[in-house]
């Protein structure tokens, strides 16, 4: 992963699809290539960062979906979510 891609991933600004694609590439490389231990550890570390980004993006999407409700005209709109409901 390039320095700019690492910086983007660290900030969490990497789009979900890009993070997932990079993660899949890492898994494939780790399974198919004969890599030295240091390279495997570096890819594992990079993969865990990408997994975190994917999980955060999915959680954000789930929250938005839960906030959607239909108004009287049948149009979808965002409603405020009560976070106290989530904790119970």
Could you explain how this protein is built, in words?
There is one protein chain. Helix 2 runs antiparallel to helix 3. A two-stranded antiparallel sheet has the order 1-2. It is mainly alpha-helical and 88 residues long.
Using brief descriptors, characterize the structure shown:
2 strands, Helix Hairpins, 88 residues, two-stranded antiparallel ribbon, mainly alpha, elongated, 4 helices
Percent of residues in β-strands: 5-15%
Mean pLDDT level: 81
CA-CA gap between termini: 40 Å
Spell out the helices and strands N to C. Answer: HHHEEH
Radius of gyration: 18 Å
- Quaternary structure: single chain
> Judging from the principal axes of the Cα atoms, what is the shape?
elongated
Kindly identify the CATH topology. Answer: Helix Hairpins
Would you identify the CATH architecture?
Orthogonal Bundle
Query: Which sheet architecture does the biggest sheet show?
Result: 2 strands, antiparallel
Total of DSSP H or I helical runs spanning 4+ residues: 4
Write down the CATH class: Mainly Alpha
Query: Which stretches are poorly predicted, pLDDT < 50 over at least 5 residues?
Result: none
Spatial arrangement of strands, main beta sheet: 1-2
Q: What class, by secondary structure content?
A: mainly alpha
